[in-house]
Design brief:
99 residues, alpha+beta, 4 strands, Alpha-Beta Plaits, four-stranded antiparallel sheet
Length: 99
């Protein structure tokens, strides 16, 4: 079953040092990146598998969190961002909002 995960990080130094991380995140079939240092990916992997996939591109200067996204969501984003979130997350059976 596919799920949505938020991957967020902070790093010190240059983003150029993390090009491998960014490329690995873009390798997910579906991904969202409207907020700096935060991505949503749709995958059948669990959080540990995602972390292991990203770990080779990390160093001691970065903090990283991988957490499953739930159906309760709110915020201030451009319409284009909400369109992606609603289209992709609502299609996952475990994330359909209840009205």
């Amino acid at each position: 079953m596919k799920k949505a995960y938020l991957i967020t990080y902070d790093y010190k130094g240059s983003a150029e040092n993390y090009e491998g991380l960014f490329n690995e995140l873009k390798a997910f079939q579906k991904w969202w990146h409207y907020i700096n240092n935060s991505w949503i990916v749709i995958t059948s992997h669990d959080s540990n598998s995602i972390y292991r996939k990203l770990k080779p591109h990390l160093d001691e200067k970065i903090n990283l969190l991988v957490i499953e996204v739930g159906k309760d969501r709110s915020g201030w984003l451009p319409i284009k961002a909400w369109d992606w979130i609603n289209e992709n997350l609502d299609s996952l059976s475990n994330l359909r909002p209840t009205y």
